[in-house]
Amino acid sequence: MPTQEAQKHAFVAPVKSYDLNEWQRGYESLKQEFDYWIDDVEGQIPPELNGTLFRNGPGLLDINGQRIHHPFDGDGMIVRVTFQNGRAHFCNRFVRTTGYLEEQQAGKILYRGVFGTKKPGGWLNNAFDFKLKNIANTNVIYWGNKLLALWEAAEPYRLDPYTLETLGQEYFDGILSEGEAFGAHPRFDPHSKLDGGAPCLVNFSIKPGLSTTITIFELSPAGKVVRKHACTVPGFAFIHDFAITPNYCILFQNPVTFNPIPFVLGMRGAAECIKFQSQRPTRIIIIPRQPKQKQIKILETYCGFVFHHANAFEQDREIIIDSICYKSLPEVEPESDFRKVNFDALDPGQIWRFHLNLQNHTVQQQLLESRHCEFPNLHPQKVGHSYRYIYVAAASASHGSAPLQAFLKIDLHSGKQQFWSAAPHGFVGEPVFVPRSNAQQEDDGWILALVYDGANHRSDVVILDARELHQGPIARLHLKHHIPYGLHGNFTSEVFLPRN
Ligand code: CO
Is it the case that residue 490 has pLDDT exceeding 90? Predict the structure, then answer.
């Protein structure tokens, strides 16, 4: 019979790996723009790591003190970290979108946000206003000698990679029309079968409605659109990411419905009108990359909600795809404050492997990792191919949902893992794997990431040896300020520094 004292202890919640107040401060705006060599370095920057890490994310969480409703509505700010001969240079600049310039000049919110940001003045002042603010905040890529900030509902913004000055919208020689969507999750095919083995950028866009049009874009290394084709699938779709193989694009049509009325009436943002339907299956849309092959396949399975895929590849008559699945998707509520999120009430994002059988149209799925994780990454030469290592940002605790505080490396062949946590004060962003030049092993390279240091309210750029990720950073580059939690980025081996 347990004593009263022991019973009391049995109900004490486990110690959390984070302090919610500390986590919240990582969502303060960074209004200043910086440009400096990073001198405060713990450890050593590998001298053979040369190139530029670009990353995008919401830099402003308020407009002149008026809070935006959700970080996904925040104006895009590009962070650039350039590595050269064992040193690193930092620079950040806002993407000067039309909306950013207008709101900065007006000193107030002028646009409704997709994720619920409202103009002041209540719903009457927001009803029937469908002007979209392209916030260019989700990803940044360097392709075809162009640096492009991406946001999935509109065209890219182009920036000068040396100065990060905004040059204007990008239409790829008129292939895109004004306001036409270009997804924020392109995939870089290292050896495109359709282009004699040359690299190729593959992207998609979504035009949702009662039925949904999916457009696939493929761009040559010179940045020219070499293939563009579209197909229509039944039903509304909310699709953030996709995966590619040499022959296919694979998209997960999440089980959601869209009720436009509160949006039309100005009471909710468009994304707040999306409702997750747990009893409905996910539809897996498989589109041939060769435009002449018009036959798309749609398979069904039950897998919750998916934002991100890690990778996909073809094996025998199957496509294998690894994705991060949430059992449910909480609605973004108009009156809620994202800073006060109760992580314990959320489902973790877990990595599942799906075997898509193209002959008999069946789907088999298997749980690869139950720990909450997000932002999967891998060796860039393995995109679309069988691969061994996956890197993700993860929760520090092995169960439940929590802020991302750790990195996890999974060996998909052996099942072995390496894990490093920045808890209790560190909050991590997307890990980007950079291969060492002339490397023989798939994990011979580095993981680069931004980590918010909640104890000091500043951010670090961390470098980990991907072979020994569990050893923690080999270098921590302390920035002079914090950087709000961001989204996606990419590394290029080209070195971009301010022109003298
Ligand atoms: Co994403």
Answer: yes
